[in-house]
Amino acid sequence: MHLSPLKRLGGSGSNTYHLFRTINKSRRYRKRPGITLSYAQSLDGCIALHRGKPLSLSGRQSLAFTHRLRAAHDAILVGIGTVLADNPRLTVRLVTGKNPLPIILDSKLRLPIDSNLLQDHPRSPLIATGKNVEEQRQRDLEQAGARVFRLPIDEKGLVDLTVLLEYLVERGIHSLMVEGGARVITNFLSNRLVDRLVLTVTPFLIGGLRAVGTLGEGDLNCFPRLSNVGYRRFGEDIVLWGEPVWENQ
Ligand SMILES: NC(=O)c1ccc[n+]([C@@H]2O[C@H](COP(=O)([O-])OP(=O)(O)OC[C@H]3O[C@@H](n4cnc5c(N)ncnc54)[C@H](OP(=O)(O)O)[C@@H]3O)[C@@H](O)[C@H]2O)c1
Q1: Which atom belonging to ligand 1 lies closest to the Cα atom of 154?
Q2: What pLDDT, in 10s, does the model give residues 168-188?
Q3: What's the whole-model pTM score?
Q4: Which residue in 99, 118, 165, 246 is a FRET match for 93, CA 20 to 30 A apart?
């Protein structure tokens, strides 16, 4: 039987077809890439035991699905907290496909020169940083293969996402996968910068670092609800996806 590339990405005959189709339609966004927020959590909503400590939650099959999801995006973004904790590679090594461009939110240029993203990735990572970082540190990272993009810092002291996303779309990045960690997840949700959520739910209760921090103070407008929900089992994990909708959107 012949399967289209989209069906092969999503798994044969599965309802992930619609999920991958919406990612491929990300070009419809004009001012920013289409954004997929994706992470693995325990049953009690945690992504790690403690902030800064790595914890591998996904089983082999759901991890391979995450790699398929990565391969469907132009770029993949994480916060520097995740790089310092997990030293991720952010590649698609478990599947066949193109590695998305790695992007790190790192306002103080803390990315270690010996990190896997600089030493063991086929593409030059883009570091989104602040305007007042040390010149020498920037040169060292560039010499190690990174591209450094200086951006304004917002009122929370974080890299301004609006400017970054506009820059990315101007450079042909139409689909962006955001993988965490907790601060990044919370900030993208607070700013309503999520078009779809793809959540790997693993059968653990770990009482650790919650994926989602405070989104608002009791105002229902702050709390998204998922529409067009789909799910599929991968081994012992369940991958659940949907499109967040906010009241008064
Ligand atoms: N289970 C999973 O799927 C999964 C996935 C990823 C991570 N994790 C876990 O999550 C933990 C890390 O989470 P975390 O909250 O400590 O760190 P994080 O969200 O990975 O990174 C947050 C840091 O990124 C920088 N940043 C710059 N601009 C930002 C912006 N606009 N929005 C948000 N952050 C911005 C800030 O540091 P500067 O001020 O220095 O720039 C900020 O403190 C680790 O323990 C890791 O293992 C789990």
Answers
A1: 31
A2: 999 999 999 999 999 999 999
A3: 0.93
A4: 165
